Fold each of these.
Amino acid sequence: MGTTTPPRTLAEALRARGDESLAGLLRARPDLLSPVPNDITQLATRAGTRASVVRALEHLDRFALQTAEALAVAPDPAPYDTLLALLTGDGQDDGDGRDDAGAAITAALPAALTTLREQALVWGEDTRLHLVRTARELLAPSPQHPSPTGLGPTVSEATAGMSPGRLQEILAAAGLPATHDPVSAVSALAGLFTDRTRMAELLDTAPVEALSVLDRLVWGPPYGEVTPSPAPPVQWLRDRGLLLPVSTRTVVLPREAALHLRAGRAHRVPEPVPPVIVAAAERDPQTVDRAAAGQGFMALSTVEELLKLWNDGGPAILRAGGLSVRELKRAASALDVSETVAAFWIELAYAAGLLASDGETDERYAPTPASDEWLDLPAQDRWTHLATAWLAATRTPGLIGGQDAKGRALSALGPDLDRSAAPEVRRRVLALFASLPPGTAPDPQTLLARLRWERPLRSSVPGVATTPGGPAGEASDLRSRIALWTVNDAELLGITGRGALSSQARALLDEGPAAAAARLAPLIPEPLDHVLLQADLTAVAPGPLERPLADMLSVLADVESKGGATVYRFTPGSVRRALDAGQAATDLHAFLATHSRTPVPQPLSYLIDDVARRHGHLRIGAASAYVRCDDEAVLNEILADKRSATLRLRRLAPTVLAAQADPGSLLEGLREMGYAPAAESAEGDVLITRAGARRTPPRTPPVPVPEGPPVPDTTLLNAAVRAIRAGDTAARAVHREGPDTATAGSLPRTAPAETLATVQAAAMTGSAVWIGYVNADGAASQRVIAPVKVEGGFVTAYDHTADEVRTYPLHRITGVADLTDDQTP
C-alpha cells in the first residue's frame, strides 16, 4: 500500500497511491471526474456513491464480479485466505461431483483483486480486505434482492428480534447447552453450523425429506414459503434453526448452514478463466478477403441504389418521426432485400450522413449534399466511410419492428433507436474475431459466452434491470442481441467474409481508414467503360461501370437483374425519362454507339426514334395547366378519350386545351393514357427534369449517444491528479501557530501588514504559504500558494490547488500562515 500504517478508510488508501495509480482509477471510472474532485476525500466519497459503484460493477468481468460477490458475504474486513476459501471451497465433498478448479481460482484471484483495488471497489491490505459499503449493500442478500451467490443472511441477521425463549428452544433441539445470553445463544448456533463435524452429525439425524428441502434451497434462492402448520420435515428444520423465520409465512436458510452444505463455496460454478472461442471453420485468408471485398462492393451498390431511389425526394416522415412500415416495404422491394436488411441499409446511410430530413413543411427524407461528395470518392474510400460510420453509430437497426417502453412500434429512422452500448459491443466482437488466426470463423455461441463472461448480464447486479441508453424494462441481454446483429451486419457490410474477419477490416481496426482502403483497393474490380447491347432491348454490364456511364445508363434503362453482371432493359418509359432529362435522340444514339462493345441493335434504334418523334409533341404549362399542340386531331383524340374526364379538360383554342389539374398531375395523366407530353416554362421552353435535383440542406451525421462520460486523455488525467493532490494538500495543510492564526479547518486570520510581510518573504525565499481567500462573489477558500511577485496591491503566485499561476488582490487575503516542513509541496 505504500505506507507502514494500514489505511483506515478508502480516502487514506487512495491517498497512499501513486499518481499513476490515481490516473488509472480516473481512466477506469471517468464519471469520477465530473467535475474534478477538490481533494482525495471528495474523490473517495464520489467513488462510493450508488450510481458510480453500479457503473463500476457493470464493467467487471465474471470472475472479478464473483470475487466482489464473495467479499459481500464474507465478514468485513475479510482476510485473503477467507476470500480464497469462499471461492475454492474447503476441500470437502459437497455431493455435487464437480471439480472446483481450485488451482485456476488460486492463480486468477490476485489479478481479480488487483482489478477491484484499482477501481476503488476494494481497499485495505490482504489481511483486512474491505469491499466498499455501497457495493456490499448492492451485492448483499435481502428478501427483495437475493444475493447473486444465492446465500441468505447470517444467523445473527436472521435471528435479530427473535425472542430469547425461541432461541432457547432452538438450542435445545440442536443439542446445544442452554444460555440466557441472546448473543451467546446466536454465537453457539452459528458455531454449530460452521463446525463440519457437529453439523454432519446433526444432518445424519435429519429425515430424508428434510434433506430434500435443504437441497432445493442450498444454491438459492434461500427463501421459502411455509404454511401455518408446516410438514414434519420442515418443522424439524425450523426447530433446529436450519430454517429461520423472516415473516409469518417465509423462512430462510442461514448463510452458515448453506456454506456447510456447499462445502464452503460462495458460487456453484466459479469462472476464473474466460471461455475459449471455438473455431467453426478455417478458411484461406485470401478467399476471405475476396469474399469480403465482393460483399463490400455489393454494399456500396445497395447504398447507391437507395440514394437513387430517393433522389427526387424520398418518403414522407411520420408525425412521430421515422419511416412508415409501407415505405420500408417499398424500399425493401426496390432494393430486392428483406425489410430487416433494408432497415439496416437505410440506417447506415443515415448514420453516414448520406440521408437526412429536408426540413420542409411537407418533411421528407432525401440525399444530403455530402452524398454527392461520397459518390465521387473511389470505391475503397466509400467503403471505409460506411464502415467507420457503422462502428461508431449508437443507432441499432435490429430493434426496428419491436416496441418501446410505452408499447409503441420502433420504426426505421425513428426516435428511441440509440443504444449507447452498441459501439463498444461491435468493437469488442470484432476484436474477438481479430484474436483468432486469419481466416478463422468463430462459433457464434462461444463468442457470446466470452462476451457474457467479460461483461456479465446486468441482472447480476440486484436492483439494476435496465440497459444504459435504452428504455426501462428492456431485456438485460441486449448486449448479446447487439453481438449477434454485429455478426450479421459485418457480413453484409464486408467487414467479414465467409464468417471470418478480413485483412482490410483488421487494418481498419488497427491502423485506420487509410490503411484499410489501401488493402481493399486491389481487391475491387476496375470499373468498365462499356456494356453489351442485345437484340432483346437489354444491355449487359459484365462488371461495375464507371460513374458517368452508370449514371446515364440508370436514366436510359431500368435495372432488370443484378449479380455478377447487371442486366438493363430499355423501355419506352425509360427512353422518355432520358429525353425528359435533356437528352436528344442523336445524343442517345451516340452514347450507345460509344459505350457498346456490340453493334447497336436495330429495335433499340427504332425505339429511341419512335419515342423521340412523339416526345414534346404535346406541351404542358400552368393555367392551372394547359395542353398545347399544333395538331388539332391529337387534341380532339384526347378530348374524346373517357380517361381524360378526371383531368377536366376544355378547349381554349384550336391548338390549346385548359385543365383544372395541376401541371404535374396533367403530365402524369396524359402519360398514363399513352402520350409523351413535355413540360414547358412560362416562356414556352421545354423544362428539363434533372436526376438528383432534390437535396437536403447541408446536414451533419447523427451524433452517437455516449455510454457515460468519455474516457479522458493522458493530459487531462495528469492535470486532474495534480489538482486533486494540490487540493488535498491545501485541505490537510498543517500551519505553524501564530498569535492570530485561526483554528484548524477555518481561514487563517492575520493583520494586513503581517500578511504583506509574509508573502513578500515567501516570494524572496521561494517557499509556499497557506492563505485564506475570499473571491468577488464572497466564496471563501483555503489555498496553498508559492508567491512569485508582490506589487501594486496584488500577489502573483503559483496556486498549488488550481495548478496554475494566478493573481490575488491583497485585500481579499484574510490571512496567511507558514506550512510545516512536511507539508511543503
Note: The CA atoms of residues 288 and 497 lie 5 Å apart.
Amino acid sequence: MVTKRNPPEFQADAIAQYPVALGSNDQGGCGFTAAAFSGPRCDNVCVGRARGWDDAMGFRSEAGGGDPLKPFDMATAALLMVDSHGVIAGWNQAAQDLLGYTAADVLGHSVTTLLVDEGDVPAVQSWLLGAENGWEGLLAALHRDGRPVELAVRACRLHALGGHREWLVALRDVSAPRENEWREDVAWSLLQQSPLGVAVLDTNLRYEWVNLAMAHLDEEVSGAATSPAAGAEPSPIVARQAKQVLKSGQAPVALENIAPVRLAGREDGGHVRLRSSFPLSGADGNLLGVCHAVLDFQGQDPARERLTLLNTASEHIGTTLDLDRTVHELAEVVVPNVADFVAVDLLESVHTPMDLTPRSAECSDTLCRVAHLSIQEDLPEVSVRIGATPNYPKESPQRRSLATGQPIREEVRPSTPWLAKDPLRWTRLIRLGVHTQLVVPVRARGINMGVITLLRWKNPRPFDEDDLLLVEDLVGRAAVCVDNARRYTRQQQAALTLQKSLLPQDLPDLTAVEAAYRYLPADAEVGVGGDWFDVIPLSGARVALVVGDVVGHGIHAAASMARLRAAVQTLADLDLPPDELLTKVDDLVVRLSDEAEATSDGPVVIGASCVYAIYDPIARTVTMARAGHPTPAIAHLDAPVEFPDVPAGPPLGLGGLPFESAEIPVEEGSIIALYTDGLIEASDRDIDVGFERLCFALAHPDRPLDEICDTMVRILLPDRPSDDVAFLIARTRALSSDCVAAWDVPAEPSAVHEARERSVSQLQVWGMQAAAFTTELIVSELVTNAIRHASGPISLRLIREHTLICEVSDTSSTSPHMRRASITEEGGRGLFLVAGVAQRWGTRYTADGKTIWAEQPLPASV
C-alpha cells in the first residue's frame, strides 16, 4: 500500500549537512532500465495508510493546526541517495542504524532489493519515473536480521551535473517512539485548553498568536481573531507591560482589579486579573517577542479584595500634583468600597505656602471641608458644604484624632455625648441610620494635615480592625500625595514670585511707543522659563525694545535670564549702540558659562539669543541688532508686513564674533514686533508657515494692541506650546516739531550767551518760564565745556517730553568726567553743578562724536 502526496521540495543543499557515502551507479546488473518502469502507474491511495502517514511523519491536518514542514528530525534522519536507474548511490550512518546494512552492502544495488512486499515495486518504479515534485508514503523494508520494518518515506528530486536525475530519500521507522511529536501534542493541548490566557506578541507589540482563553478576554484583544495574521493590537495595559519587558528583560507580575473596586460609577463585578509577561528568545539568543499570560479569577476572599483595593488605590490616588484632585481621588476609592460616606477635612494652613509643624493636643487650627462623597446623590448626611468650616465640637472624634494623631472608631447612637452638642449632625446621622463612624488623621512626614471621616448605614457591618488597617493604609498613601501636592504648590508659588520679580509687571508709559506683550512659558505648571522682554527708556526721548531667549526651561533658565536682563538694562543705561551692547552681553554669557563649568553650583548658562532695538521718535527710525534671534517684524500702515534685513549675529555665548546694526525708517503708527523663536516654531508647521501666520496676525496695525496680541496667540500657538514664548509689540509715535528746538552753536565763547537766550525764549514759547533758571545753568555749563574741551561743530537741542531734555553734541569722543574741584581752582565745577540741578544726566556716543544730555522734571504748571 502506498500513499502519494506532493509536499514542498527539500532544499537541494540539505544533503551537504549529512555524512553520506556516495558510490558509482555504473555497477552493472543491479540497476533499473527505463523499460522496467513501463508498467502502469499506481495511483491508488489507501486512506488508512494515509492517516498513518500523517501520524508517523508528524503531519497534522489544517483543522489540527500542525506544521507539515517538519515531519523529520533531519539531524538524525536516515538518508540515502538513489540515481535515475533506481540504484542506491548514497547511504548514511543513520540508515545503517535503521536497517542494519552497511554502505558496502547496499551501494550499487537496486533500492527495490530492500522492499519486503513485491507489490510495492511498481509504486517505486512509478515514483522514479514520473514524480516531478517529490514523493512520500509508507513502505515495508527488510532489516538485515530478516525482520520487516515499516518505514515512512519522503523523497525529493535533485538535479545533478550532466542533466542526471537523482533522489534524496529520507526514512523513518513509524513504530519508533515519537517523543517530539508527543511533546508537541502536549504543548499544543496545554496552551489551547489551558484556562490561562496565553499570547505571543512580536517585537512591534502586535499579537502573533493567542490561545482560546486569551481570545475570549475582550479587554485583552479588541476584536482579535486567533489567527496570527490578524496582527491585532493588545490593550494599553498589555502593551505597556510588554514594552517594559522588552526594555528591561524582566518578567513583571501585576494584579489588576476588574470590578470589585468601584470607582467613579464603575459597576461591581467581583473579578480580578493576574498578569505576567516574559521575553521569548530563540536558540541563538535573539529576542523573538514577549509571552503574555493572564489568569482571570473570581472570589470573595476579603484579604484578596483588600489587596486589590490597595493596588487600585496606588494607581488611582495621586495622579496629579493638584491637592483638591488628590483628595477627590481618595474619596472615590473609599466610597462605596469601604464606606457609605466619606468627608475629607484639611487644615486651612495646608492651602497656604508655609511649612507645617507637628501639632499638639491643644491644636485648634481651623479645618476646611475639601471633599465629600456619598452613595446617595442628594447627600442627605452632609451638613457642611465644600469650602466651609466643619466646626466640630471639641469632644468630637475629629478634633481628638487631629490632636492625638490616632484613628478613632466608635458607634453612633442617639445618646452619643459629643453628637448631642451638634443638633444638625445629630438629626442627619440618626435619621439616616448611621451606626458606626471611623475617623483617621491625614498625616504624612510627621505633619497633621487634617482628618477623614467615614460613615456606614447601608452596609450593616460595623467598621472592624481590618477596616481600620485598610483605611489607615489608604489614607497614609493619600496623605503623602497631599503633602507632595502641598509642597509643590509652595514651590510653584515661589517660582511664580521669582518670575514676577524678574519680568516687568507694567510697561512704562512713554511718549515714543505704546507697547504690549505676552509671556507663555512652556512649563505651564511651574510658570517660569528663560524668555524675557523689556522696554527701557533712553535719553533723547528714545526707547529700547528687547526680547531674549535663554536655552532651557524652568528655574535655572529663569535665573540665567534674570542675570542677562539685568546686564542689558545696565548696558542700555550707558546708551550703547545695539551692536556694541550685544558684544558686551556676549562677553558676559561667555564668562558666566566658564564660571558655571568651574563649579557645580548655580545655573549653567549654555547660550542665549537676543534682539535689541532702539526707536527714535524724533528721527523716526529704529536701529536693530540681533544675536542668533529671529528678525523682528514691522507692520506698516500702508505697506505689507516687513521683515527687515538685519544682519544675523551669532548666538550669545560663542564669543569673538562681531555683531552689526541696521537702521530702518519707520512711520508713525507702525507696529514693531519682537518675538522668540517659540512663536513661529510653536508647532510642526514649516517655519515659513509661521512667518506667514505672523504677517496675517500683524495685519491692520491700527487695531488695539491687546487685540493684536490675542490674535497672535490664537493663530500661531497651540494649547500647550513645547517651547517658551515671549513677544513684545510696540506702536510707534513721533514727537511733533513744536516739541523739539535745535540750534547750531559757534565754537567761540560769545556763543554761550546766545545759546542761553535762545533757550529761555523757547521756554517762554512752551510756557515753561519756571524752568528758565536751571535751564540757563545747564545750557551754559554744557556749551562752555563743548567749546573749551571739544571740537566743532557744536549743536544744542531742547526736547519737551515727559521731562525737559537739554542736549549738547560735538564731534569729540572724549568722555566728560565729573570731579570735585579744589578751593583754589577757578573751574572744574560745571558737571558737578549740572548733576545738582538735573534729575539725571549722561553721555551717549554717536558715529560723529558724543552727546551730553541732562533731564529735569517739567514745572508743575505745565
Note: The first helix runs from residue 47 to 57.
